[in-house]
Amino acid sequence: MPNTRKKQHLGLIGMLLIAVSFAGLHLTAVTGRASPDTKNYLSYALSLSGESREEAGRRAIAYSCASGQHASLSPVPWTNRKTVGESEEQCVRRLDDSVAYWSRHGNTSGMTAPFANQRFMAIFEARPGYPLFLVPFVAVFGITWGLWLAGLVIALAGSVCVLLTLRAAGASRRAGLAGQALYLALPTGTVAMNPLSDGLSLALGTAVVLGCVLLLQDRPRTDGESGTGGGPGAWAAAAGPRTGAALVAGGLVLMFFVRYSQALLLAAALAGVLLVRAGWLRRKRRQFTPVLRAAALCAGLTVCIHAGAHLLGWPMGRDSAQDLLTHHYQRPDLPNPWPEFFVQEGVFWSAWLRRQAASPVLPVLLALSAWALLRRRSVVLPIALAAGAAGLLNQAGHPNLGQLYGYRLIVFLWLLPVLAIPLLLDRPSREPSPVPAQPEEVGGGQRDGTVGVALQVREGA
Fold first, then answer.
1. CB-side exposure of 143: number of CA atoms within 13 Å?
2. Disulfide engineering: 114 pairs with which of 102, 258, 268, 408, CB 3.0-4.6 Å?
3. Distance from C-alpha of 276 to C-alpha of 59, rounded to nearest angstrom
4. Secondary structure (DSSP) of 100-153
């Protein structure tokens, strides 16, 4: 028991050291992270906190322009912030003029300040979850530190979900900590810290991924089987399908209010991959019921998300295509946007592939992930594939060359190496047979075959 407790403490200490190191590194860039969309979410949050629409817009402009003056030179990797091109006074004047212009031209309602036409701002009105999440942080700590602390909470929550996902799948403590560190070090960590809805959507996505892994477990393991008596690893081992179903449903419902398009794509990708997996297991005459159950849950949630967005009148796929092709609805709509949209798809992905060839960090990590897929047998791998597919689909829905050097739209693709590469740290193990072992005689009696299955799972882990 003392040795077990020592290992628990080592795991917790490792998790905390990674979190503290990440927070310390990002203290070098408390501000300077604002993007053009940050002011929209911030003004929404300030309106929710009780400020008038005009005052919320003024404060959001002040923060955005002040943030833009901070130099892009930062030791934080992956940030790629642009060099400032105008003074703070020029920025404030430009945005004030824009607000006045669009107020005169019909944008007189809503929670966000009128930074653009009402049709474009409706995109942000349909994402109330992130502004609502910001309200207590901004109210207590002010705008600058509130946004930074909110990002830190989002990033650390996602990293802990990754750790728990790997531990729930039977990976070692070392692999779990490696997954947490990768999540924070790769663009997933930077996107989580940026004051945009993408980070919160990503953190909720990791909770959904954790829930799917738990759903695929036939039953929770006891402390004796998991080899742990407490801590995150013990929780991951003891949690079962009911907890998994709650995480999947709850995570996707919350994602619906944060960024419903990403929630829709993640649910659809999980349903598709799990359905294919269930069909493959059935052909192999192996247990497929848990996988099929998880696929059905994700498919049902996909339908609910799409129906909910439609009933609420939120912008859909056609609106997104018109937004891209009309420069945020400032030009007349195209009667049929799809031919030109698919031309833009070809242009974007050609440029994206050239970008990856010139800076092959992601291709190398994806190659290592493919190696893990071939050499390891883990329940987390099909889930990671589905998350990566959701990232590709999200980027495909927004083939904007302005996002060529960014990571936020395709960020779910980075979950594939985050979840797959740490598995290479563990010994290869055969996937245990889902068919319970036959009872065998032990000392004149019989032993239940399910005990043998549990031992196989622990030995493989």
1. 24
2. 102
3. 50
4. HHHHHTT---SSS--SS-HHHHHHHHT--HHHHHHHHHHHHHHHHHHHHHHHHH
